[in-house]
Structure formats: structure tokens, C-alpha cells
Amino acid sequence: MAESKVKDMGLAEFGRKELSLAEHEMPGLMAARKEFGPKQPFKGMNINGSLHMTIQTGVLIETLHALGAKVRWCSCNIFSTQDHAAAAHRRKSIGVVVTEQMMTVPGWSVEGTSSSTTSATRSLLIQKGKEFEENTDNAEFKCILQLLRDSILADKTKYTRMAAKCKGVSEETTTGVHRLKEMAAKGELLFPAIIVNDCVTKSKFDNVYGCRHSLPDGIMRATDVMIGRQAWLILVVGYGDVGKGCAFAMRGAGARVLITECDPICALQACMEGFQVVTMESVVGEIDIFTTTTGNFKIITLEHMKKMKNNAIVGNIGHFDNEIEMENLEKFEGIKVENIKPQVDRYVFPDGHGIIVLAAGRLLNLGCATGHPSFVMSCSFTNQVLAQIDLLTAKEKGYKNNVYLLPKDLDEKVASLHLPALGAQLTTLTKEQADYIGVKATGPFKPDTYRY
Ligand code: NAI
Fold first, then answer.
1. Which ipTM value was assigned to this complex?
2. Whole-number Å distance between alpha carbons of 449 and 451
3. Where would I find the S-adenosyl-L-homocysteine hydrolase NAD binding domain in this sequence (predicted)?
4. Substitution candidate for ligand 1 out of 123, 149, 292, 294 with most atoms within 8 A of CB
5. Nearest 5°: phi and psi at 257?
6. CA gap 255, 271 in Å, rounded
7. What is the Å distance from ligand 1's center to 445 Cα?
8. Per residue in 399-443, pLDDT tens?
9. Of ligand 1's atoms, which has the minimum distance to the CA of residue 298?
10. Helix (H, G, I), strand (E, B), or coil: what is residue 62?
């Protein structure tokens, strides 16, 4: 068994209990275990994953394992690792779980990497502890993940050996998909990639409804403020999938919500939903809670933060901590930091006014709360399992070193697997009706261009 780095093995039993509860809420993954488990499609395969090490990710890991894979995992955000989830896996002897809260680094190794299937599902901050330096495969794995992480490109020569054995990658996030597309366009992608984020049952569910749940959860756990009060203004920066979920959550909590957008289509959508679209500069001094959702950088600058109200709450649910200029804030001369509690800091400017920064500018829904609920993550992760199965026959299907969508029928399958748990009853098309609208009665029901 591979060595793991886990903070507290005493939490394993708690982790196991929460994993059991989550299984009940993740019907897609449990159906995948039932359908594919007996066939063991991943037998002899290694799946390397990088994704927030939460309970929900734990159910994904155990599903991949149940389908025959050797699984190695690392976390990707210093605040998002749930140590009880990591401990439960360690006890069950599944792969390597790196938690960045780990204090000691025992010697550890990984299983052989022949015929690897790599699932680098989320960018990460793994460079922190030199976790992957002990072993060449680990170093190469780190390089692949760094490549997916951001434009800070790793030394490409380091990952070619592993890439040659890699059947492909399935990518979870909006930003990761951008990077993969850039790499494919430059001819730098060394294996096929399935862009799971672009499955309808991922981005139109996890990004929207997941954030609709976990944004208020994070803000409330961190600050206990009353979000819904007439005089308060909330700014949601970006009105893409995540922004839409956030805006609806804040409005649902009773707040007045403003939006900033650069894309006229999204701005128009916001207007049609009754949200006022503004610029940051025009409202920065009036806002009570800022939430960035763009996946872009330098969204809230130091200059903005200087102009904010006393005790304005500033958080990011988009991608990296660079959506907020944290580095410049921390370096600002005379700034004082009052740590209120873990992941909640009040930065006090020399003029005496302070702002409350959540999760040090990292994802506040994972840093200050526990991320998305299991049910919505079941949709995302069932896509991951189907994508990894699809990659097994990538060569036979003629996949090149490019990015691919999961076929629409699989996207629809993921939705179908989740409907019974919600008591939904689908209408069956007659052959005549199906012919009339030009689809098969069993689907796919929409072309790839349909936007939902
Ligand atoms: P998206 O592309 O649908 O939305 C981003 C929006 O931000 C776009 O409409 C874009 O026009 C807008 N935008 C970009 N720069 C802007 C600026 N300077 N000012 C105002 N608006 C700007 O992407 P999506 O799916 O909403 O994802 C956004 C980010 O959230 C990504 O980084 C993604 O990886 C991350 N994400 C985080 C999750 C979480 O649990 N915290 C869950 C899902 C996604």
C-alpha cells in the first residue's frame, strides 16, 4: 500500500460515517458502482486525482476503486481538505491522500504507473510542501497538475515520460478547461482530455446550484451576519454559471444584489432577472458583501479594498486567490491583520477602517464551509467516472491529443440516474413524436449546441 499523508487518523471513524451518509445522497456514483463494478473496467489502471479532498470526493475515490482502479489523490486547496475524509481512506488503504495540513512527511511511494489513466481533476497548490519530490512519478504527476493549474507552466520535459503512459485526463473546472484548450491549441497537450466541466450535468448544476447552496453557507459560517436586510448591498462579480447561483442565493436570503459583468449577454441575462448591472468603481464604497465568481484575476484590487466600507466582507468563490489582490493587500504598508477565527481575517488599514476577508481570498465555500452538497456533486462525479471509462478506449475511438466533450447520451444518462431520487417522472416520447422533432425516443434529445 502506498504511504499516505493524513493529519489525524483518529478522525477515520467519523469520516467513514459521513461517507456512508454521502453515499445515500450520491445516487449516480452508487449506480456506477452497481453497473460497472462487476466488470472492473479500471483493473490494472492507476488513477491519479487532484481535487478538494472532501467527503464527496471520497465517494468518488471509492467508486473508482470499486471499479478496479488503484487511486492516488492529492488535495488542491490548503483550506478545503476534510481531514476525516482523508483519514477514512487511509484506514481503507486507498491510494495516497496528501493533505496540505500535514506536518510530517514520511517516506512514501506510489504503485507502478504502467498504463496510467490520469485524472487531474482540479488545479492545486501542491508546490507548497515538496510532496511529490521523493519519487519521479510523483514529480511528473506534479508537473501535469501544474500544467493544468494555471499559465505558470511547469518544465514540460519532466512530464513526458508519464504522459506517454497516460490514457488521458478528465478535467473538472471551468478554469482547468481554459488551460487545456490553450494547451491543445498550442499543440502542447500530450494526451486526450475530456472536459467534464462542460457536461451540462456538471456546469449547469454544480456551478449554479452547488454555489447557490455553498456561498451563503460559507458566508454565514464565517461571519454570522444577517444577509437579508433591506439596507445591505451585495455585489456578485461575474454572472456566468457560478455568478447566477450566487446571485439567486443572495436574493433568496433577502438581500439586494448588484452584478458586474464584462459580457453583454450575461449582463443582459442579469438585467432580465431584475439585477442591476453596475461597475465595481461606481459602487465599491457602498457594498456590504463582495463575492467574486469570474475565474479571472485582479478583480478586486488593493485600490478597491482601500475604498470599501468598514467591515465590508470580501470573498471569492471563483478560482484562485488572485481574483482578489491578496498579495498587494498583505504587503500594503501599515496594514494590520486581526485573525478572528480560522479563515476569517480582518485587514485594518492605517486610516482605521477594516475589511473582513474570507478564506484568505481562496474559495470561501470550501474554506469557510464544506463546499457543495453531495447530491449535486454526484452529478459532477458521475461524469468523471464515465469520462474515465471513456478514456480507456480513447485510442480505439481515435481520440487525438485534444479536448473532447462527453457524448450527449452520457450527459443525459447522468441526469436520468438522479431523477428517481427526486421523485421525478419522465415523459416517454412516442415514436411519432420523436420522429416529428427529429430525435430518437430514447435520446439524445438535444444537439450539442443546445444551451439549456
Ligand atoms: P463562467 O465563464 O460561466 O462565468 C464567469 C463570468 O465572469 C463570465 O460571465 C465572464 O464574462 C465574467 N467575468 C470575467 N471577468 C470579469 C470581470 N473582470 N468583471 C466582471 N465579470 C467578469 O464560469 P463559471 O462556470 O461561472 O466559473 C467561474 C469560476 O468559478 C471558475 O474559475 C470555476 O473554476 C469556478 N468554480 C468554482 C466552484 C466552487 O465551488 N467554488 C464551482 C464551480 C466553478
1. 0.99
2. 6
3. 207-371
4. 294
5. -115, 130
6. 16
7. 28
8. 999 999 999 999 999 999 999 999 999 999 999 999 999 999 999
9. 18
10. helix
